[in-house]
Amino acid sequence: MRVVVTGGAGFIGSHLAERLVREGYSVVVFDNFSSGRIENLLSVLDEVEVVRGDLRSPSDLEKAFEKRVDAVFHFAANPEVRVGDPQEHFENNILATHNLLEAMRRHGVRDVVFASTSTVYGDAKVLPTPEDYGSMRPISLYGASKLSCESLLSAYAHTFGFKAVALRYANVVGPRAKRGVVRDFVWKLLQNPRELEILGDGTQKKSYVWIEDAVEATLHAWLATQGGFEAYNVGSEDSITVVEVADIVVEVMGLSGVHYKFTGGVDGGRGWVGDVKYMHLDISKLVSLGWKPKHNSREAVRKAAKNALEELKP
Ligand code: NAD
Question: Is this complex's ipTM strictly greater than 0.85?
Answer without folding.
Answer: yes
